[in-house]
Amino acid sequence: MKRFAAALLAALMTVGLCGCSWQTESPDEAREVIQVIAMDTVMIFTTYGEKSTHADYLSEDEVRRLESLLSRTDGESVICQLNSAGGLGIDVGEEVCGLMEAAEEYTLATEGAFDITIAPVVAAWGFTEKENRVPSQKELDELLTLVGPEHITLAGDAAALTPGTQIDLGGIAKGYASDRIAEILKENSIPRATISLGGNVLAWGDRPDGTPWRVGIQDPQDPNNANAFAGMLHLTDAFAVTSGGYQRFFEADGKTYHHIIDPATGYPADSGLTSVTVVADCDLDEVDGTPSVGTMCDALSTALFVMGEEKALDFWRSGKYDFDLVLVTEDSRVVVTDGIADEFEESKESGYSYEVVS
Ligand code: AMP
Ligand code: MG
């Protein structure tokens, strides 16, 4: 655990979806910055106002609570207990049930592109225990019979899985954590903040000078360069969540295998996209203790990465959920949906071509 006082930082971060750069700010407002390492992610909470310190540390406590509740590897977690229950029903509590219900909604809405029962397949590729390998087609075919929402039964606060089925909330947990942090910011009357959970960013309020927060979209072609952006979003009261194959991957036999699995094939999604950023307004009325907009953005960014450009845009056009998109493609295009076009800034000399779609 690391906590850094704001005084150590001389300039304001431009929050990056996996990267950051620097700019100046007026120093006349109380501000606290802490760095937290949780959920396998470096998180940075930058919070303003009288209760900024209190809100940051409450947020840290909250992500640690959620990590121990939802972890796939900590044997004490409710999720590990459910995964090893051998088909028996166990009491997972109201909160986990609510999250599993939300996950199921997104599974149905995305026709299975987002599916938390993908867990055994993610594990077979070695992403859970960080011992990567390429599973055989036979192994994948057998594991895929355990994947699907029909293998989960929810009743009250209890859940049961088909024997062999396991769940992995890694595609939704940080989004849910950002919803809970939004609740903390609201309860503590925080006027402005940026909450960065790796690829999940909450831009709360606006900057001290009244302009929107600047949220960089990491260039997937240059993932280790924190200053390489495929574009910049100018956001006020919004979530921006990015999924990308570049965020976690391994190489074997000259091929690259990443961590977002297409439940239709059992293989890492190969949809022609290198990243998907889902952007949606953070409506204060919806910050009410339930899985909300941050959770939605997280589930959808994973799902739309699996779906690919055409299906992702069809899904956006369907209007079922209220969000906008920035898609980065393998053939070096950046596709921006028109609802966010005015808030999107192209990265000059990035080599990308830019398109706005409606
Ligand atoms: P994200 O970074 O939010 O896109 O989530 C990726 C993580 O979600 C992976 O590391 C896995 O733990 C899990 N995951 C992988 N593929 C899927 C999928 N198709 N649906 C749901 N979760 C997935
Ligand atoms: Mg996700």
Characterise the protein shown here:
- The chain has 358 residues and is of the alpha+beta class.
- It has 2 domains: 2-62 and 171-253 and 269-311, T-fold (Roll); 70-170, T-fold (Orthogonal Bundle), CATH 1.10.3980.
- It is 27% helix and 28% strand.
- Helix 6 (173-187) packs antiparallel against helix 7 and helix 7 runs antiparallel to helix 8 (309-318).
- The longest helix has 19 residues, at 52-70.
- The N and C termini lie far apart (44 Å).
> How much strand content do the residues show?
25-35%
Note the gap between the termini: 44 Å
Examine the coordinates and then state which fold CATH places here, giving the name of the CATH topology of the largest domain: T-fold
Mean pLDDT: 91
Query: Helix count, per DSSP?
Result: 8
Number of strands: 19
Percent of residues in helices comes to 25-40%
Shape: globular
CATH superfamily descriptor of the largest domain: ApbE-like domains
Q: What does the oligomeric state look like here?
A: single chain
CATH architecture field of the largest domain: Roll
Bound molecules: adenosine monophosphate, magnesium ion
Strand order of the largest sheet: 3-4-8-9-12-15-16-17-19
List the helices and strands and how they pair.
Blueprint: E1 12-17, E2 21-23, E3 31-38, E4 41-48, H1 52-70, H2 78-83, E5 90-91, H3 93-109, H4 119-124, H5 137-144, E6 152-155, E7 158-161, H6 173-187, E8 193-197, E9 200-204, E10 213-218, E11 229-235, E12 238-244, E13 249-252, E14 255-258, E15 273-281, H7 293-307, H8 309-318, E16 324-329, E17 333-337, E18 344-346, E19 353-357
Parallel strand pairs: 1-10, 17-19
Antiparallel strand pairs: 1-2, 3-4, 4-8, 5-7, 6-7, 8-9, 9-12, 10-11, 11-18, 12-15, 13-14, 15-16, 16-17
